[in-house]
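Ticket #4471: structure export looks truncated?
Reporter: QA, pipeline team
Priority: medium

Steps to reproduce: submit the single chain below to the structure queue and open the exported record.
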Amino acid sequence: MQIPVEGGPKTFRTEHFEFKNDEEVSRAFVMEAARVFEGTYAAISALPLGLKPEPPEGLTHFQTSFQNNTNFRSVVENSSSIGDPSRVAGIYISRLKSVYVPYSQLGTRSSGSKMTLRKTSDTSTLIHEIAHQLMHDWLPLTPLWMAEGLAEYMAAVPYQNGRFEFKNIERGFQEALARRGQSRNISVPAAKDFLEMSQNDWSGAGDEYSAAMVYVYYFIHLDRPDQPGATPAAYLKLLGEAKNNTRKLLTEYNAAVDSFNASVNKYNAELNTFREKAVAYKKEVDDYNARVRQYNQQLQDGVAEAERVKVGEEPADPPEPPEEPVKPKILEEQKVDGPIDIYAVTNKNALPSLLRGRSYEQLEAQMKTAFAEMGITLYFDLK
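Actual output as written to the record:
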């Protein structure tokens, strides 16, 4: 598959990606890398999951940085807690909105003063990280078992020269399990524990990645074999809707809070002005009444009118107090005592689409039956 590549010698662009290199690389290097990246983009876009990968806000292309070992180690050590950078073949750092890849892990070789990528390089880890990159907008809300499971699933699809052979996914899935030492007997966490786990519950252990791939494979291919991908597609759709609804609620709620606070501040300022006017008005009334009393006394004492105090006009109407602000309806209806956990809210709303009315025990029984037909014995571990 020929991928159009523009630019050089350190920055190149394809249709959806921008590659930045800290060393000059050959165009052949970028073209080979572009096959992996653009191929993954095409494969994820083609999945029946309703995913439409778009670059992070503010970017026109997905960003990738190829680096020497020293620079890569520095990035990983400063931005991740994954451990020894020398054992990492690539990483997507969401905060930096970029995939970082060390040349050494790509099977590169020097060609003159430039780096060249061998076509025989193992790209599975890179595909895993590209999958994360393409799901950037989903990562903050997608459970780690789903995010990592999809990435592991994509890395398991047989790949060759930019093409993903989904027709051979069962073979790729079983080969991926075998590489992890889990061929025909697989243990995974209990469905309730796994599907309801929080972000903090994910330990990052290797068996969790295997379990995630098993669950994702089941939901894509075995849960509704007549409609591959229908279950996770519904889940991701509800996840997106819940995310949008929750964010809309937060936007409206925060706007109402800001508006109400502004009204309260305005009211307090007007109340201070009113109090000042009330004090001045009381003084004006007191002074007027004092003049009236003096005038009456002078009248009784027979003081000539020309010599009596000038009473003057009665004070005007008293100042009106400001109207108290009315609390917006949304603040009365929604009781938000602290920050809303968007992750928890969205996943709680989306989870029923995976269960589809089943209990966790029923889901586990159906998973066991489906994998048994593939020659795999599935065990569920209890915490």
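Status: closed, not a bug. The export was complete when the record was re-opened. Leaving a note from the reviewer for reference: The chain has a mean pLDDT of 85.
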